[in-house]
Amino acid sequence: MKNTSHGLTPALIALMSVATGLAVASNYYAQPLLDTIAHAFSLSINQAGFIVTAAQLGYAAGLLLLVPLGDMFERRGLIVFMTLLAAGGMLITATSQTLPMMILGTALTGLFSVVAQILVPLAAHLAEPAKRGKVVGTIMSGLLLGILLARTVAGLLASLGGWRTVYWVASVLMVIMAIALWRGLPTVKQENHLNYPQLLRSVFSLFIKDGLLRTRALLGCLTFANFSILWTSMAFLLASPPFNFSEGVIGLFGLAGAAGALGARPAGGFADKGKAHLTTTVGLVLLLLSWIAIALGQFSVIALIVGILVLDLTVQGVHITNQTVIYRMMPEARNRLTAGYMTSYFIGGAAGSMISASAYQHAGWNGVCLAGAVMALLNLFVWWRGYHRQPECQ
Q1: Which DSSP helix (H) or strand (E) runs through 280?
Q2: Pairing of β 188-189 and β 2-3
Q3: Type and span of the H or E element at 100
Q4: Among 6, 70, 326, 381, which one is most buried in terms of CB atoms within 10 A?
Q5: Contact, 372 vs 226, CB < 8 A?
Q6: What confidence score (pLDDT) does residue 192 get?
Q7: How far apart are CA 368 and CA 226, in angstroms?
Q8: 323 with 341: CB under 8 angstroms?
């Protein structure tokens, strides 16, 4: 393993956290704007919801097809190149005049914004083993903050200059970040003798061989589906009576989610101390309970904010724990482990978006909350089965 780094400094951790958050945020600017975009393109709720789904499906494809390249090529150059391509996707979205063009730009942005998932295993590689969980927790907090604050920023920019302004500004920021990453990242290349088809096959072989990876990947899939079920339809709830909130106000709800995400940072430290079972169990129980407050949110903004805080806290906590656990397995294959785990994770996100939009269209907010609660119960069942099948896993 070639590595010219002299250590993972706080400044480098901060740069990687911001880059991770900015990259993944590009998939979520549309969520508080869905009602506005639906009116601009004369779309139904289901059609508007597919914009978010396209981003997540593009992201899932990038996770499977592009992230393993981090175990094959020099990572700094790969990261910078993919960051620039993601910026290009947002330019297509900003200039789109039809729904197919917008979906193309959104899908391309999702495909290349998986650069975030090359940065995470890179941080795990550069970190000292005793602090790996803490570092992963910090980087992943940056990722989830990007997802959540994207809504706030998008809402504010749309209020100032329309929804297209969001994508123009975001594409410029991605170009600036590409320059910063080129200057700040060390040169790191994984030495292996696998070609690209072998690299992809090895992702599937890891799944087949390792029950722990399968359990944690399925937990991630169902957990992020919960997250998407809430956030995909929340803009429709808040834009309709009795709330009638603007895009800017709807975007501010991302701040509540951001507070929850920050609260989950210690999860990586707990996993470092061998308490991954405990944080997973507590997190999944709280995830189920959060839907009670979320269901009451159709009548009370305070109840909705409480539900958002608890749900985002638990989603992030379980996610950080999952990644800390799987990064211990095969240090030389962290990008492939990330590809397998995160592909499952974002397939869950895409499924959650489709379920949420359909549930809201046919059964309103009660249908969304029922779907979320059922998903949370399924997640608990998967963990109960996986816990007993993997008694030695952390």
Answers
A1: helix 276-296
A2: antiparallel
A3: helix 99-112
A4: 70
A5: yes
A6: 66
A7: 10
A8: yes
Identify the weakest region by mean pLDDT among 215-219, 332-336, 379-383.
332-336
Phi-psi region of 154 (alpha: psi -120 to 50; beta: other; left: phi over 0): alpha
pLDDT at 4 over 70: no
What distance in Å separates the CA atoms of residue 7 and residue 105, rounded to the nearest whole number?
A: 37
Contact 36, 247 (CB under 8 A): yes
Q: Is the separation of the CB atoms in 297 and 236 below 8 Å?
A: no
- CATH, range 2-389: 1.20.1250.20
Q: Are 349 and 228 in contact (CB under 8 A)?
A: yes
What the block records as the tokens of 175 is 């170009």
Q: Using one digit for the tens of pLDDT, what is the confidence trace for 90-121?
A: 999 999 988 889 999 999 999 999 998 899 88
**Structure-token pair, residue 283:** 């997190």
Given pLDDT bands bounded at 50, 70 and 90, which one contains residue 173?
Answer: very high
Q: With beta carbons less than 8 A apart as the criterion, state whether 144 and 22 touch.
A: no
Per-residue burial over 194-203, b if 16 or more Cβ lie within 10 Å, else e, is beeeebbebb
User: Which pair of structure tokens corresponds to residue 119?
Assistant: 């940065």
Work out the number of other CB atoms within 10 angstroms of the CB of residue 9: 12
Containing 3, the helix (H) or strand (E) segment is: strand 2-3
Q: At what angle do helices 163-184 and 132-161 cross, to 10 degrees?
A: 150
Counted residue by residue, the chain has a size of: 394
- Answer whether residue 2 shows pLDDT above 50: no
Q: Provide the β-strand partners of residue 189.
A: 2
